[in-house]
User: Which sequence fits this backbone?
């Protein structure tokens, strides 16, 4: 390929998608491409799709139009979860040239080469699709993001064996499988050698880490063993666990994080509903009592930990009583913030045919109530942390004259822009909450920055 070609990437969805986009981008760089921002003119645009919510599906068309507005002659490639679930639907979007499914996305440059070499083949018209049966997605491809952000997303696991009734992820990503411990540690060392201060462990169901390839259900290593091994890698200053199922977050892991050298006191634990009736309908693998126990255990050993919660509103069969049960459960729970998802019907899921459909207006009202509760919880958590000494990792973007960063327990702070702070960790004293909800501070470790 011509080394002057430019390629741009857009990622929809989760941290896992960001890690995979970064890995795919490196394969283009190795082929001689020059990576540019998605807002710039490029010959190739790659969109990594998500299909967790209906809104993510709709956004895809908008992103394609944005690319073609910059370069109407561009070659547009769709990869990722939506590309696996509905390849023909994506291929029908005006301007899309190539659609790659779950296993094919990591060979994107090969498919692109083949296609460009046959560009004059008059027997092909419209977008070309390469999408496997999801049962074929039984091997593991390691990924991590680097160079995109101050922190790196390190993929340790992919796929899911759970059968939650609302979820398409097993259909889009296949069975649960993991990277080897040796590969994870090697990737972590590569990241640390590039000067990145924080690694976020990511996957579809990371608490299930250790399952091998080809559907091997036995665990060669556990998530706890992975954490212990990563804690010993030189050069890593912070390790953060992304979303982890409550039934897979064991006491031993919580206790280890509490005294770890590098793991930070931050947990994101999906709840989805505070009603046991709905948890059973969702086929979740726990009840609210276990969730309560997880939160209480974290608070006992890490009183200042940040605890985030996923919750779904408007699931089929959710009555007003069920919703209020969830609301009051969360209101009384000592958590730090919520990620609220308004239920949307997904094809080929059990929930899509369930009775008791909740009207959209009611779903939106309940979502608004929980978002309000989240704002209250976050404010209370921040207020509780004012007056404490924390460490902040500063980000690399100048946002209207300010630099932002996050404490180890995920409090977002702001200070006047200073490029010398980028990608540094500073000890600070949290002093007040600004009118925009972010926290101000005074420097402890380096007053020269004040």
Assistant:
């Amino acid at each position: 390929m011509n080394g002057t070609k430019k390629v741009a990437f857009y990622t929809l969805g989760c941290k896992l998608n960001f890690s995979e986009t970064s890995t795919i981008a490196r394969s283009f760089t190795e082929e001689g491409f020059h990576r540019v921002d998605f807002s710039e003119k490029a010959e190739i645009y790659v969109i990594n799709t998500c299909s967790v919510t209906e809104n993510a599906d709709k956004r895809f068309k908008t992103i394609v139009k944005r690319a073609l507005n910059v370069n109407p002659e561009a070659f547009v490639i769709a990869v990722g979860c939506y590309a696996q679930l509905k390849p023909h639907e994506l291929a029908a979007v005006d301007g899309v040239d190539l659609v790659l499914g779950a296993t094919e996305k990591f060979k994107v440059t090969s498919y692109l080469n083949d296609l460009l070499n046959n560009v004059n083949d008059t027997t092909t018209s419209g977008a070309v699709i390469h999408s496997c049966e999801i049962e074929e997605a039984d091997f593991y491809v390691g990924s991590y993001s680097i160079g995109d952000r101050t922190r790196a997303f390190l993929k340790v696991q992919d796929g899911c064996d759970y059968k939650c009734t609302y979820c398409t992820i097993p259909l889009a990503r296949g069975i649960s499988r993991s990277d080897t411990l040796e590969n994870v540690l090697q990737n972590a060392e590569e990241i640390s050698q590039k000067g990145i201060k924080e690694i976020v462990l990511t996957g579809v169901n990371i608490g299930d880490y250790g399952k091998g390839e080809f559907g091997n259900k036995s665990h060669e290593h556990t998530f706890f063993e992975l954490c212990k091994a990563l804690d010993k890698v030189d050069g890593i200053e912070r390790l953060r666990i992304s979303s982890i199922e409550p039934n897979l977050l064991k006491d031993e892991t919580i206790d280890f994080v509490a005294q770890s050298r590098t793991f930070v006191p931050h947990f994101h634990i999906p709840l989805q509903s505070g009603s046991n009736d709905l948890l059973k309908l969702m086929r979740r693998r726990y009840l609210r009592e276990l969730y309560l126990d997880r939160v209480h255990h974290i608070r006992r050993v890490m009183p200042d930990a940040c605890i985030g919660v996923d919750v779904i509103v408007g699931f089929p069969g959710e009555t007003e009583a069920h919703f209020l049960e969830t609301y009051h459960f969360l209101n009384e729970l000592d958590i730090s913030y919520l990620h609220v998802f308004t239920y949307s019907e997904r094809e080929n899921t059990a929930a899509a045919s369930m009775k008791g459909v909740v009207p959209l207006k009611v779903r939106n009202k309940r979502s608004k109530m929980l978002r309000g509760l989240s704002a209250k919880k976050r404010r209370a958590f921040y207020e509780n942390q004012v007056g404490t000494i924390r460490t902040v990792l500063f980000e690399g973007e100048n946002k209207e004259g300010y630099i932002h960063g996050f404490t180890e327990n995920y409090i977002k702070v702001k200070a006047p822009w200073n490029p010398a702070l980028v990608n540094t960790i500073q000890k600070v004293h949290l002093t007040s909450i600004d009118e925009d909800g972010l926290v101000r501070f005074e420097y402890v470790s380096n007053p020269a920055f004040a």
Remarks:
- Residues 389-449 form a domain with the OB fold (Dihydrolipoamide Acetyltransferase, E2P) fold (CATH 2.40.50).
- Residues 120-124 have pLDDT under 50 and may be disordered.
- The chain has 13 helices and 19 strands.
- The two ends are 50 Å apart (CA to CA).
